[in-house]
Amino acid sequence: MINSSDVAQNRNVVVIDEFTESLLFPKKDSIGKQIRLKVDIPGFSNNSINSDNASEIKKCTIIGVVKSGYHGKKERMKYNKYISNLKETINLNTVIYTPKSYLLQNFETSDQKIIAWSTNDIKAMQLIKKSIELFKNQSLKEFTSYDLVDKDTVLRQAKENLEPIRIFLVLIMVVLLIISGINAMSIMFFSVKERINEIGIKKALGATKIEILNQFIIEGMMMAFIAAVISVLLSIVTVLIVQKYLNESLFILFEINLTVLNILIPFFISIIYGFAFSVIPSYYGAKIKVTDSLRFE
């Protein structure tokens, strides 16, 4: 990585991401080699290994490679799309880090200055804000405006923007759960009616209402659990197929975030769901009298 001595000595070193390395050095042997860096306008650069116009291009030595972030993965999808369509001209954005001192000394840059802090401490954030206000008051020409944003603020704004969509999806989910719950309850009622004779025989042999009630509730919960297993497996397989299709065919960056919690929550909900919609049919079966159940046809 770039260190303080690189900045102090204005060294012509760069750190690139894996996507940039794959474009310029397919053998992944970029460390120690040089690239030619040219900045035409602030924020944009043209990079190549071979160039005849050496007067406008600076040679920089690669000292490190970092993993590609979302931007790099998105550009890789764009690159694959152009290659598959046999396009002649490909314009891509690559990620290249260089010491700020070397950038300011050798390239034309914009007047905008960006200073970034990363902290989880509220007191430190308040101190940074006071320091920025003080610096702004002392240097109005160089520092005209600023924007201080923390992660919680970004998340809160995103939640507020997505709140109407979330409420709409929750309402749809509740309606679907109620409809499917009524269907599950109907199935349980049919199951209880078909086994009324069985219930009478068990009661005649000494089974209590609680035992009959527990039997049907456990059956309903097991049925919901099995349905959850099937639905989760089908969902994972479907999402993986969609992800592969989007990445390889449409070249759209789409990734799933599978965690243990995301998998366990549907199972937990399904058990509660099976219990809630099995109580009434199970209670109906437990209330049946022995005489009525043995005469039932």
TrEMBL record:
GO CC annotation, single: plasma membrane
Species for this entry: Herbinix luporum
Location relative to the cell: Cell membrane
ABC3 transporter permease C-terminal domain residues: 171-288
Record family assignment: Belongs to the ABC-4 integral membrane protein family.
Name the record gives this protein: ABC3 transporter permease C-terminal domain-containing protein
Keywords of this entry: Cell membrane, Membrane, Transmembrane, Transmembrane helix
Xref: PANTHER family: ABC TRANSPORTER PERMEASE YTRF (PTHR30572:SF4), MEMBRANE COMPONENT OF TRANSPORTER-RELATED (PTHR30572)
Membrane-spanning residues: 167-192, 213-243, 263-286
GO molecular function: transmembrane transporter activity
Membrane topology, from the record: Multi-pass membrane protein
The organism's place on the tree of life at top rank: Bacteria
Pfam families: FtsX (PF02687)
